[in-house]
Amino acid sequence: MAPLPFSLIQDSFYGLIAGVVIFIFSVLKAIQGFQRWKFSRRHGCQAPVHSVSHGLFGIGMILEMVNAGREHNFVELVRSWHRSYGDTFKARLATRNVIFTVEPRNIQAVLALKFKDFGLGEIRKAAVRPVFGEGIFTVDGSKWEHSRALLRPNFSRAQITDTKIYESHVAALLRLIPRDGSTVQLQDLFFRQVIVVFDVFSIYLTNSFKTLDTASEFLFGESVHSLREETSAEAASFAKNFNVAQEGTAIRFRLGPLMKFYRNKEYTKATIEVRDFVGRFVQKAIDYRIAVNKGEKVDPEIKKLTDNQYIFAYELSKQTLDKKEITDQLLSILLAGRDTTANLLGTTFFMLARRPDIWKRLRAEVLALDGRKPSFEELRAMTYMSWIFNESLRLYPIVPFNLRCALKDTFLPVGGGPDGKSPVFVPKGDEVIYNIYTMQRDTEIYGADADEYRPERWENLRPGWAYLPFNGGPRICIGQQFALTEAGYTTVRIMQEFERIENRDSSPWIEEYQLTMSNANGTLVSMTPAQN
Question: Which pTM was predicted?
């Protein structure tokens, strides 16, 4: 009998190995499935009533979200899904298994009670990494704890309560509001103010290099003064690039695993230029730190600045001289610092211009100061203003959605079974998207008029985990009190200077949702100066 050809033996051997590998893989999958079944049964888990997949592998759902974003209808699209499929439902988005939920108990579990069971997820990290690298909003675990520890000193009570730090920037804003009754785009001014959630800092400028504005003062130790009439071209270019970079990042996030096919030359160019712009300041801080460490002579103005206040870039350079690491942190903080308070003020004044009754009541609270610039304690005592901010953040949250990925097999407390009251199993690797926008418009929590702007509802309302404008749990925004204080100070100073506001825009509030949410048309109004 002739021996078998070597090639046939070789093929048989490889086939046997492949068969063994497949068999072992199947056994391991079966064991995993059995363990998950036991886990799910032990905790009484049931699947949500609805498990949806629009189109092949859920790709249709992804495209719906991308198109809705372009049409300024993203938040309402997802809200409509909840109306159709319930407070908690499953969805397939290409390779992703996602649980959508608006249940306060589920959100509390994800953000607090089961905090260690969830992380940001690779989809989110991959989407934001080109622009923001590994900053505080893009990392988990020890890296996040380290980033948060670096930021916390900026939000001490002493800094939050010192309202004098806002005055020069608010005064610059007030000078740009027309006093002749002409139309002004207030939202643009609020974005140019860019003090949000940060300390306001001493100014260090060189003749040849200007930067963004107050947020950049805190981060870099320098300011672009975009509220000056002669805003530098460099500052304007950076602001535009930052917007384009955010928009591209949002599209990548919505595309999920399909983001690898996203090609946009403008986004790529903006990403490079944004990081290069910030990197120049980072290099300046690194050079300063190296000189200090070597005992060499340093710029006396920078030394005076860093000796008297906390400048993030220079503080980070004490911990690391890694240019990329510092740049990542600065860009992440700049995102929060640029959008939070500006969006809150834009929405609030958008509503004030349409509700003279609310303007009148709030201004009466402001006039009780008798023209004094408000202290922190006086701002906190303004109850009606706090109701207004709560209502603005309820109806138009700055971050209307968020996502977490299961780091281990776990479960949500409610949302499963026919009545939606059973726990829901969340396998390791599956994602939970929690919808703040829809939750904060729940009629069972906020009343039948939940879609209406009514600050008075907050007189006796205590919604707990059903109200999360600044997130919750260990990752709650550490700058929220600073943001609200700044917004309050800005509002009071405007109302001291102007006695009336008039709407100059017939359009309703239109969603502009990238990484944060604002009004697409801004805040077009006219202001009538107060009579002295």
Answer: 0.83
